[in-house]
Model the fold of this input.
Amino acid sequence: MATRPPREGKKKYFTVEEANATLPLVRSVMRDITALAHDLRERQDRLARIKPPQRGSLGQAHEEELLQVQEELGRDRERILEFEAELTRLGIQIKDYQQGLVDFPCRMQDREVYLCWRLGEPEVAYWHELDAGFAGRKKIFKGAVVSGQ
Done:
């Protein structure tokens, strides 16, 4: 069952079934995001280590290469933001680019919580309080009152 994007001004709440139904798309997007995030971090680290010689500056070829790498970084950052916007339109929140963590807003026992999923997990099987984060994850038990109202 596919989930519909939330209507303007109305927050989307997921059931476990709805969250799991989005996983084929979420997996694909998060694979792309984590790959880009790792690549961006490596390139940024390499760029940070490039220092011009104490006397003078980088040569023309090095300056052009540096400019090209910076432009590529900017394009890749934009791609990550586009991927994030795609999930945000569905009501899904990205919590960590590197680990591939996402949260799905949910209603459980008349309060808002997050269903939690990490890239590599077979299904959405955890939840946490809004302020608890990944460290506060708890297993979803059968029979939990979870609604997507």
Remarks:
- The mean pLDDT is 85.
- Residues 16-147 form one domain.
